[in-house]
Amino acid sequence: MANHRADRVGMEVKREVNEILQRHIRDPRVQGVTITDVQMLGDLSAAKVYYTILSDLASDNKKAQEGLEKAKGTIKRELGKTLTLYKIPDLTFIKDESIAYGNKIDQMLRDLERQD
């Protein structure tokens, strides 16, 4: 059975984290980071936060991950001010690879069209 509350809270966390990154975090490593999805654990104690950045460079990806980890406390504090939850979930930041995968599939399809 789908946990609709976890989905709703996940959408709210996604919206709030994006706003926090834009307004409250001044770390240049997280500038340009966009939250693409949040998956909440059923009991709302933890959240996997998927993010993407514009750059494909491995060094930029590493810097963004380090910046997000460093800003985790500030993000949780700001979430605590805006969300009405008993306990703010633990955040785990994960690079979203789905966009790169979709671009790869799209390129393969274009290559197949050119072959015909």
What does this protein structure show overall?
The chain has 116 residues and is of the alpha+beta class. It has one domain (4-115): K homology (KH) domain (GMP Synthetase, Chain A, domain 3). The chain is 54% helix and 17% strand. The chain has helices at residues 4-23, 58-82, 98-115, and strands spanning 34-40, 46-52, 90-95. Strands 1-2-3 form a 3-stranded mixed beta sheet, covered by helices on one side. A hairpin with a 5-residue loop joins β1 (34-40) and β2 (46-52). α1 (4-23) packs across α2 (58-82). The protein is globular and about 60 Å long. The termini are far apart. The mean pLDDT is 87.
Number of domains: 1
Please report the number of helical segments: 3
Strand content: 15-25%
Going by CATH, what is the homologous superfamily? K homology (KH) domain
Count the beta strands: 3
Largest sheet: 3 strands, mixed
Helix content: 40-55%
**What is the H-and-E element order?**
HEEHEH
Q: How far is the first residue's CA from the last residue's CA?
A: 45 Å
Rg, rounded, reads: 17 Å
Shape: globular
CATH topology descriptor = GMP Synthetase, Chain A, domain 3
Which spans have pLDDT < 50 for at least 5 consecutive residues?
A: none
By CATH, the architecture is named: 2-Layer Sandwich
Which strand order does the major sheet show? 1-2-3
CATH top level class name: Alpha Beta
Derived from helix and strand composition plus strand pairing, the structural class reads: alpha+beta
Arithmetic mean pLDDT: 87
